[in-house]
Design brief:
six-stranded mixed sheet, 496 residues, binds nicotinamide-adenine-dinucleotide
Length: 496
Amino acid sequence: MRSELYIGGRWISPIKGGTFDVVNPATEDVIHKLPAATAEDVDAAVAAARRAFDKDGWPKLSGAQRAAYLRAIADGIRVRQQEIARLEVIDNGKPLPEAAWDIANAAGCFDYFAGLAEQRDNDRGEPIKLSDARFTSRAVKEPIGVAGAIIPWNYPLLMAAWKVAPALVAGCTVVLKPAELTSLTALELAIADEAKLPPGVLNVVTGSGSVAGQAIVDHKGVDKLAFTGSGPVGSKIMTAAARDIKRVSLELGGKSPFVVFDDADIDEAVEWIMFGIFWNQGQVCSATSRVLVQDGIYGELLRRLVEETRKITIGNGLEDGILLGPLVSKRQHEQVLGAIEAARAAGATVACGGRRPDGFERGYFLEPTVLTDVPLGSDAWREEIFGPVLCIRPFSDENEAIELANESRFGLAAAVMSKDDVRAERVAAAFRAGIVWINCSQPTFTEAPWGGYKESGIGRELGYWGLENYLETKQITKFVTEEPWGWYMKPSEAAQ
Ligand code: NAD
């Protein structure tokens, strides 16, 4: 396990020497200490990133050259996949197979963006047809500059990859700050060192949001902020970015609906519903946490759902056969339990779960929970719980389902299930959300845009859209005729 900051291609201790504890959420043991960076360390990281961008030529490399570094990083991750996955489990709590999937995906993300980098070598800019034939013009894309990437704890290495890979391909340099709850694997991204990534192109600083994160946000040397996390912090970052007109992209929370019509296969629906809410202990921004089921199958679907939910094996993610690990932290555990209590108090019924499982006195474990009779105006129905807690209710017709689904200040994801393809497409079109799944929930592809409507964020990650997050657009216009200047005033005349 790494114990230092990665700045300018070197491992260094924080200037003021503070540390914070790394806690294994399955055992509550302190397993490591990491450096708590302060504004001075962030300043050093930004200076290194600026040098790499302004002087050392990272943005001037060809796409193929940058792609070679990214592919080397991807290979480095793959070689150590199991080891990194185990670090993710002891840091975040998720079951090992899920962690291994995340790490493989992180490597795949570097490979995918390497491919885009190679394609960009043939890109001479988009020609623009002007209304005046004496000029030609084209739009070229250039890197924004130094990107500050601030990420959450639910997919630690994967979220880092979603930001670092497109930023590097664009030609930006990066200061990355992982969440203080899960910083172990982001430091492993210094595999970049073995990949001979030039010093300062990627810098990793660990520390708290209010100190290290805020220092990145406020730093004048940072041109772009890319953030994934909670709405309130996202809003703070956008406000701060407005001061210096920094570019900003935000991936925030959600309360995503899943509409199941009564022609759907009940067993299939139950499987996708469970995947949509219990994967990663429900700590997924796009979790389909509000399930709406047409009344013809509501009773039977709920019965099957509760039956299957009770079978989920809970335990330390390092053990075989575990499907649900602990929540990430004591605070998160308390918050989710508190949300369940508040739902009960508001009139909801706990159909299953809702408590710490028997035999788990230590660790932040919680039974997977299904809530029924959740009042529409209650926090449980409206606010993100970010845990393995599902709210389910019946609906009678399509219009009601769409209305209930869209009645939210969030708009990250939405899903619909029906054998009637025309209806499913109609509902998909009616959803006010950035990601819509038909007959499934949660499959995520590096090639496709990811991000939310409304308060779920601004900008898109992944695919070409993700690369655009780190690019500026420049118009280059040329005067290409021998004809006289025309109707413009000549400088010699203007001077008189
Ligand atoms: P958080 O907002 O508390 O923290 C996210 C990151 O921001 C952490 O690295 C934290 O240290 C940092 N941070 C906190 N305060 C800061 C400040 N003042 N300035 C700069 N940085 C600061 O969120 P979290 O608890 O880590 O994650 C849970 C939330 O993230 C949930 O609401 C979830 O929906 C959201 N999330 C969204 C997505 C998505 O893709 N849309 C993905 C994962 C998580």
